[in-house]
Amino acid sequence: MASGAGQRIAAEWAEKIDSGELKHGDPLPTYPQLAEQYGVSQTVIRDALKVLHQDGYLVSDGRRGTKVFRLKRYELPMYVLEADDRGRDAFDDAVRQQGGQPYQHIRVETIIPSLDTRAALALDDGELVLARRRMRTIDGTPYAICDSFFPFELVKGTAIADPTDIKRGGRHVLREHGLEMVRHRDCIRSRRPHTREISDLDIPNGLPVIRHDRVSFTSSDQPIRLMASAFPSDRWQITYEVEK
Question: At what angle do helices 4-19 and 31-38 cross, to 10 degrees?
Fold first, then answer.
C-alpha cells in the first residue's frame, strides 16, 4: 500500500488525467524528476505510480517509459436504448453518433440460471434461461460485456436464440412474438472487476466496472429479459433524462 504522500501524489495525477489536462499517450516525467518535483524519495514516487497503474491510469511501454492511458470516454444514453422504433441496435447507433465503430462478438447458450437471475425473471425451480452473451468493442477495443437472459420457453426458436447479430435489435424480435417491453427497472452499482471482466475487457484489476442490470417487463408485469452489463469505468458515462 502506498504511503500517505504516495496516495496524495496518485490522487493529484488522477485528477489531472480525469480533467483532460493530461491525455492518452502523454509521457510522464522520470522517477528522479518527479521525486525532485515533489520533494520525496523515488520509492514514494514508485508507490504512487503503482497505484495509478493498478487503477488503469498509466501504462508502461518498455524503454519508452510510462504514459497516460485514457481511452475515449463514450456517453451511453440509457433512456433511448428501449424508447424508440428506429429498427436498429440503439447501442450501435449511440456509438456511431460519437465517431466510434462498434462491433459485437455473440455467444448464445442455454443454462441453469443463477439465483439472482431466477429471482429477476421470476422463474420456477427447474426452468432454464437462454443467455445471449455479447462482447462489445469500439474500434477493436473491448468496451463492454452485455449479457441478456431470457426465459428459455419464451424465446426458443426465435432470432434471440440465433448467435448472429440482430441488426434491428432484440426488443423488436420480442415485439414480433407478442412480447412487448413496456417497463424497465434499472440497478447500477460500481465494484471491482470479476475474473471474466478482467480477462475479456483487458483491464487492470484495480479499475472499477459499472455494473448495470435492467429487468424488462410486459404490460402484464411479466419479466422477460434481464440485461446485465459491465462497463469499464474509465470508458463510459451513463446518462439519463427524467421527465416529470
Answer: 110
